[in-house]
Protein backbone atom coordinates (compact mmCIF):
# COMPACT_ATOMS: atom_id res chain seq x y z
CA UNK A 1 0.00 0.00 0.00
CA UNK A 2 2.94 2.30 0.66
CA UNK A 3 4.13 1.71 -2.92
CA UNK A 4 0.63 2.39 -4.28
CA UNK A 5 0.47 5.69 -2.39
CA UNK A 6 3.97 6.56 -3.59
CA UNK A 7 2.81 5.95 -7.15
CA UNK A 8 -0.15 8.29 -6.53
CA UNK A 9 2.24 11.03 -5.37
CA UNK A 10 4.33 10.61 -8.53
CA UNK A 11 1.34 10.53 -10.90
CA UNK A 12 -0.43 13.42 -9.18
CA UNK A 13 2.62 15.68 -9.40
CA UNK A 14 3.35 14.60 -12.95
CA UNK A 15 -0.17 15.50 -14.10
CA UNK A 16 0.35 19.15 -13.11
CA UNK A 17 3.64 19.39 -14.98
CA UNK A 18 2.33 17.57 -18.06
CA UNK A 19 -0.88 19.58 -18.29
CA UNK A 20 1.08 22.84 -18.18
CA UNK A 21 3.40 21.57 -20.92
CA UNK A 22 0.49 20.28 -23.05
CA UNK A 23 -1.28 23.63 -22.88
CA UNK A 24 1.92 25.48 -23.80
CA UNK A 25 2.47 23.16 -26.78
CA UNK A 26 -1.11 23.39 -28.09
CA UNK A 27 -1.80 24.77 -31.56
CA UNK A 28 -5.28 26.06 -32.53
CA UNK A 29 -5.13 24.46 -35.98
CA UNK A 30 -4.79 21.01 -34.39
CA UNK A 31 -8.14 21.26 -32.58
CA UNK A 32 -10.58 18.50 -33.45
CA UNK A 33 -8.20 15.55 -33.30
CA UNK A 34 -8.71 12.95 -30.61
CA UNK A 35 -5.23 11.41 -30.77
CA UNK A 36 -2.66 14.11 -31.52
CA UNK A 37 0.79 12.52 -31.79
CA UNK A 38 2.25 15.83 -32.97
CA UNK A 39 1.12 17.42 -29.72
CA UNK A 40 2.99 14.76 -27.77
CA UNK A 41 6.15 15.38 -29.80
CA UNK A 42 5.91 19.13 -29.14
CA UNK A 43 5.17 18.70 -25.45
CA UNK A 44 7.99 16.22 -24.87
CA UNK A 45 10.52 18.92 -25.80
CA UNK A 46 9.65 20.85 -22.65
CA UNK A 47 11.43 20.18 -19.37
CA UNK A 48 8.17 20.10 -17.43
CA UNK A 49 6.80 17.31 -19.57
CA UNK A 50 10.06 15.37 -19.34
CA UNK A 51 10.07 15.78 -15.56
CA UNK A 52 6.50 14.52 -15.53
CA UNK A 53 7.50 11.48 -17.59
CA UNK A 54 10.30 10.77 -15.13
CA UNK A 55 7.84 10.84 -12.25
CA UNK A 56 5.49 8.62 -14.27
CA UNK A 57 8.29 6.09 -14.72
CA UNK A 58 9.01 5.99 -10.98
CA UNK A 59 5.29 5.76 -10.27
CA UNK A 60 4.90 2.88 -12.72
CA UNK A 61 7.61 0.86 -10.97
CA UNK A 62 5.93 1.48 -7.62
CA UNK A 63 2.58 0.54 -9.16
CA UNK A 64 3.98 -2.80 -10.39
CA UNK A 65 5.33 -3.59 -6.91
CA UNK A 66 1.96 -2.76 -5.37
CA UNK A 67 0.04 -4.88 -7.90
CA UNK A 68 2.24 -7.83 -7.01
CA UNK A 69 1.23 -7.68 -3.35
CA UNK A 70 -2.25 -6.22 -2.87
CA UNK A 71 -5.56 -6.47 -4.81
CA UNK A 72 -6.18 -4.38 -7.91
CA UNK A 73 -9.09 -2.56 -6.25
CA UNK A 74 -6.76 -1.24 -3.52
CA UNK A 75 -4.14 -0.11 -6.03
CA UNK A 76 -6.78 1.52 -8.25
CA UNK A 77 -8.27 3.51 -5.39
CA UNK A 78 -4.81 4.61 -4.29
CA UNK A 79 -4.03 5.79 -7.83
CA UNK A 80 -7.31 7.71 -7.90
CA UNK A 81 -5.94 9.58 -4.90
CA UNK A 82 -3.38 11.12 -7.25
CA UNK A 83 -6.03 13.80 -7.82
CA UNK A 84 -5.78 14.72 -4.15
CA UNK A 85 -2.02 14.99 -4.65
CA UNK A 86 -2.62 17.18 -7.70
CA UNK A 87 -4.87 19.44 -5.64
CA UNK A 88 -2.25 19.88 -2.94
CA UNK A 89 0.66 20.30 -5.38
CA UNK A 90 -1.31 22.93 -7.32
CA UNK A 91 -1.04 25.29 -4.36
CA UNK A 92 2.75 25.86 -4.40
CA UNK A 93 3.26 25.35 -8.15
CA UNK A 94 0.26 27.20 -9.52
CA UNK A 95 -0.83 29.45 -6.69
CA UNK A 96 -4.16 27.61 -6.41
CA UNK A 97 -6.15 27.81 -3.19
CA UNK A 98 -8.26 25.02 -1.80
CA UNK A 99 -11.53 25.88 -0.12
CA UNK A 100 -12.68 24.17 3.07
CA UNK A 101 -14.88 21.86 1.01
CA UNK A 102 -11.94 20.89 -1.16
CA UNK A 103 -9.73 20.20 1.83
CA UNK A 104 -12.64 18.13 3.11
CA UNK A 105 -12.59 16.13 -0.12
CA UNK A 106 -8.86 15.48 0.38
CA UNK A 107 -9.66 14.20 3.88
CA UNK A 108 -12.41 11.98 2.43
CA UNK A 109 -9.91 10.40 0.01
CA UNK A 110 -7.48 9.76 2.85
CA UNK A 111 -10.24 8.23 4.98
CA UNK A 112 -11.27 5.92 2.14
CA UNK A 113 -7.67 4.80 1.61
CA UNK A 114 -7.28 4.14 5.33
CA UNK A 115 -10.34 1.88 5.26
CA UNK A 116 -9.00 0.09 2.20
CA UNK A 117 -5.62 -0.39 3.80
CA UNK A 118 -7.21 -1.98 6.85
CA UNK A 119 -9.52 -4.23 4.82
CA UNK A 120 -7.32 -5.31 1.89
CA UNK A 121 -5.99 -8.84 1.85
CA UNK A 122 -3.24 -10.24 -0.34
CA UNK A 123 -3.54 -10.33 -4.13
CA UNK A 124 -5.59 -13.15 -5.60
CA UNK A 125 -3.94 -16.27 -6.98
CA UNK A 126 -5.90 -16.32 -10.25
CA UNK A 127 -3.68 -16.54 -13.34
CA UNK A 128 -6.25 -15.38 -15.89
CA UNK A 129 -7.47 -17.28 -18.92
CA UNK A 130 -6.29 -16.86 -22.51
CA UNK A 131 -9.68 -15.31 -23.29
CA UNK A 132 -9.09 -12.65 -20.61
CA UNK A 133 -5.64 -11.83 -22.01
CA UNK A 134 -6.95 -11.58 -25.57
CA UNK A 135 -9.84 -9.48 -24.29
CA UNK A 136 -7.40 -7.03 -22.72
CA UNK A 137 -5.55 -6.73 -26.04
CA UNK A 138 -8.85 -6.06 -27.82
CA UNK A 139 -9.79 -3.40 -25.26
CA UNK A 140 -6.40 -1.72 -25.70
CA UNK A 141 -6.98 -1.52 -29.46
CA UNK A 142 -10.50 -0.21 -28.91
CA UNK A 143 -9.14 2.53 -26.65
CA UNK A 144 -6.99 3.82 -29.50
CA UNK A 145 -9.90 3.73 -31.96
CA UNK A 146 -12.21 5.55 -29.56
CA UNK A 147 -9.57 8.23 -29.04
CA UNK A 148 -9.21 8.74 -32.78
CA UNK A 149 -12.99 9.09 -33.15
CA UNK A 150 -13.34 11.42 -30.14
CA UNK A 151 -12.07 14.38 -32.16
CA UNK A 152 -15.40 14.47 -34.02
CA UNK A 153 -17.42 14.84 -30.82
CA UNK A 154 -18.65 18.19 -29.46
CA UNK A 155 -16.14 19.91 -27.20
CA UNK A 156 -18.24 19.31 -24.09
CA UNK A 157 -18.23 15.52 -24.39
CA UNK A 158 -14.87 15.14 -26.12
CA UNK A 159 -12.78 15.62 -22.96
CA UNK A 160 -14.91 13.16 -20.98
CA UNK A 161 -14.59 10.48 -23.67
CA UNK A 162 -10.84 11.04 -24.02
CA UNK A 163 -10.39 10.88 -20.24
CA UNK A 164 -12.53 7.76 -19.90
CA UNK A 165 -10.66 6.07 -22.76
CA UNK A 166 -7.28 7.04 -21.24
CA UNK A 167 -8.39 5.67 -17.87
CA UNK A 168 -9.48 2.45 -19.54
CA UNK A 169 -6.04 2.19 -21.13
CA UNK A 170 -4.35 2.62 -17.77
CA UNK A 171 -6.75 0.02 -16.39
CA UNK A 172 -5.55 -2.40 -19.07
CA UNK A 173 -2.02 -1.79 -17.79
CA UNK A 174 -3.06 -2.55 -14.19
CA UNK A 175 -4.68 -5.86 -15.07
CA UNK A 176 -1.96 -6.85 -17.55
CA UNK A 177 0.75 -6.48 -14.90
CA UNK A 178 -0.99 -9.21 -12.90
CA UNK A 179 -1.11 -11.51 -15.94
CA UNK A 180 2.60 -11.30 -16.74
CA UNK A 181 4.73 -13.63 -14.62
CA UNK A 182 8.23 -12.38 -15.34
CA UNK A 183 10.10 -10.36 -17.92
CA UNK A 184 11.48 -13.18 -20.07
CA UNK A 185 11.45 -14.55 -23.60
CA UNK A 186 8.69 -16.92 -22.54
CA UNK A 187 6.36 -13.97 -22.09
CA UNK A 188 6.74 -12.87 -25.73
CA UNK A 189 3.79 -15.10 -26.57
CA UNK A 190 1.63 -13.64 -23.82
CA UNK A 191 -1.10 -11.33 -25.23
CA UNK A 192 -1.14 -9.47 -21.88
CA UNK A 193 2.34 -8.11 -22.63
CA UNK A 194 1.16 -6.48 -25.86
CA UNK A 195 -2.02 -5.28 -24.17
CA UNK A 196 0.14 -3.53 -21.58
CA UNK A 197 2.30 -1.82 -24.23
CA UNK A 198 -0.61 -0.80 -26.48
CA UNK A 199 -2.90 0.23 -23.61
CA UNK A 200 -0.21 2.32 -21.93
CA UNK A 201 0.84 4.07 -25.15
CA UNK A 202 -2.76 4.81 -26.16
CA UNK A 203 -3.58 6.10 -22.67
CA UNK A 204 -0.63 8.53 -22.71
CA UNK A 205 -1.60 9.91 -26.12
CA UNK A 206 -5.24 10.34 -25.18
CA UNK A 207 -4.50 11.89 -21.80
CA UNK A 208 -2.14 14.42 -23.39
CA UNK A 209 -4.87 15.43 -25.86
CA UNK A 210 -7.47 15.60 -23.09
CA UNK A 211 -5.28 17.88 -20.98
CA UNK A 212 -4.60 20.18 -23.93
CA UNK A 213 -8.17 21.32 -24.59
CA UNK A 214 -11.72 20.99 -23.41
CA UNK A 215 -12.84 20.46 -19.84
CA UNK A 216 -9.99 18.82 -17.96
CA UNK A 217 -12.41 18.48 -15.05
CA UNK A 218 -14.45 16.08 -17.16
CA UNK A 219 -11.31 14.41 -18.51
CA UNK A 220 -9.86 13.66 -15.08
CA UNK A 221 -13.22 12.45 -13.78
CA UNK A 222 -13.40 10.03 -16.71
CA UNK A 223 -9.80 9.02 -16.05
CA UNK A 224 -10.58 8.10 -12.42
CA UNK A 225 -13.63 6.04 -13.39
CA UNK A 226 -11.82 4.26 -16.22
CA UNK A 227 -8.78 3.20 -14.20
CA UNK A 228 -10.59 2.10 -11.02
CA UNK A 229 -14.03 0.52 -11.50
CA UNK A 230 -13.63 -2.13 -14.19
CA UNK A 231 -10.09 -3.24 -13.22
CA UNK A 232 -11.36 -3.76 -9.65
CA UNK A 233 -14.18 -5.95 -10.96
CA UNK A 234 -11.78 -7.99 -13.09
CA UNK A 235 -9.54 -8.52 -10.06
CA UNK A 236 -12.42 -9.74 -7.90
CA UNK A 237 -14.27 -11.85 -10.50
CA UNK A 238 -11.40 -13.38 -12.52
CA UNK A 239 -8.22 -13.07 -10.45
CA UNK A 240 -9.47 -13.94 -6.97
CA UNK A 241 -8.82 -10.64 -5.19
CA UNK A 242 -10.48 -10.69 -1.78
CA UNK A 243 -10.52 -8.49 1.33
CA UNK A 244 -9.60 -9.75 4.77
CA UNK A 245 -12.02 -12.16 6.38
CA UNK A 246 -15.17 -10.36 7.50
CA UNK A 247 -14.06 -6.94 6.19
CA UNK A 248 -15.63 -6.97 2.73
CA UNK A 249 -18.00 -4.18 3.80
CA UNK A 250 -15.06 -2.00 4.86
CA UNK A 251 -13.23 -2.61 1.57
CA UNK A 252 -16.32 -1.71 -0.51
CA UNK A 253 -16.96 1.39 1.59
CA UNK A 254 -13.34 2.50 1.45
CA UNK A 255 -13.19 2.04 -2.33
CA UNK A 256 -16.40 4.03 -2.86
CA UNK A 257 -15.34 6.80 -0.47
CA UNK A 258 -11.86 7.17 -2.00
CA UNK A 259 -13.17 7.30 -5.59
CA UNK A 260 -15.97 9.72 -4.65
CA UNK A 261 -13.49 12.05 -2.99
CA UNK A 262 -11.21 11.87 -6.03
CA UNK A 263 -14.08 12.74 -8.35
CA UNK A 264 -14.91 15.73 -6.17
CA UNK A 265 -11.33 16.93 -6.72
CA UNK A 266 -11.28 16.29 -10.47
CA UNK A 267 -11.20 19.98 -11.34
CA UNK A 268 -7.61 20.10 -10.09
CA UNK A 269 -6.60 18.20 -13.19
CA UNK A 270 -6.84 21.59 -14.91
CA UNK A 271 -3.83 23.67 -13.95
CA UNK A 272 -3.42 27.20 -15.26
CA UNK A 273 -0.29 29.20 -15.82
CA UNK A 274 0.67 31.29 -12.74
Automatic annotation (TrEMBL):
Record carries keyword Transmembrane helix: yes
Keyword Phosphoprotein appears in the UniProt entry: no
Transmembrane segments: 50-67, 74-95, 101-119, 131-153, 192-211, 217-240, 247-268
Keyword terms: Membrane, Signal, Transmembrane, Transmembrane helix
Signal peptide: 1-21
InterPro entries, per database record: EmrE-like
This protein's name: Integral membrane protein
Amino acid sequence: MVCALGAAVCFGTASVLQAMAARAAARPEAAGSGVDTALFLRAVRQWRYLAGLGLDAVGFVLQIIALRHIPIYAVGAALAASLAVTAVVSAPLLGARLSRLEWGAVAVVCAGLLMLGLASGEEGDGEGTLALKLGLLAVAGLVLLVGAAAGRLPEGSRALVLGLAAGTGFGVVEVSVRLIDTVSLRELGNPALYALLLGGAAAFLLLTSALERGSVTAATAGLVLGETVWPALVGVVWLGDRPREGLAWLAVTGFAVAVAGALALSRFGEPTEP
